[in-house]
Fold these 2 entries.
Entry 1:
Amino acid sequence: MNYLHALPEALDEKRVPVQKEGVCTSHKGLFYVGLPGQRSFSSATLRGVGKDAKYIVNKVKDLI
């Protein structure tokens, strides 16, 4: 997660994204997809990431 070095609060002490179901809990407007266990067991796989991406797209739309 080196790309988040400018937002140190976005990662916990183990350098894992601080998030709930792909929505960053420390920075409004920051979202994740493809994390292990994000919303289901298959979130980090091609089989599961599509459902998570659709969920995140709807969250982004809520911000607009």
Note: DSSP finds one helix and two strands in the chain.
Entry 2:
Amino acid sequence: MSSQKCSFSISLIGLILLGFFFSIGKETNAQSKLRIGVFDSRAVAVAFYNSKFSTNQQIFASLGTRMKEAKEKDDKDAIAKIEREASLRQVMMHEQGFGRGSINNITGAIKDKLAQLAKSENLSVIVSKWELVFSGADVVSIDVTEKIVDFFEPNEKIKSMMKEIMESEPLKDAFLIDD
């Protein structure tokens, strides 16, 4: 009987070791979930437009120069086009900073940094949280807003604004804001 117990014990230990061997390398349920980085596009837009990386000041200065020249020439067509461009740029920034507007013009400039962030955080995707309309139980969303904002080297005032922005809901129809 003693040899049967020994044989049974050895078999049991063998099965346990075999099970352990095959479980090595298998991901746990938590590891097998798709990791998606999400960010608040409003916070990223405000950080960008208030950074040294933004070309907005130059763009609006150029529009001002072009407007002055068009007015000096009394070129009504050019004046109308410049006014339209300035208005559309302002509308876009309102939608980006206060609404749910796309910030592709911003993220395109930092795509290499976003790729590095995705790699370091083990993310499969990074997307604006306003564009993520559904995620199943097999998805884990990781907020990377502050890490993206940091790409634009914000000062303390901007960092404080980011927290306020992220605690509030986006404005509906932010493009209708009238300055």
Note: The first strand starts at residue 34 and ends at 39.
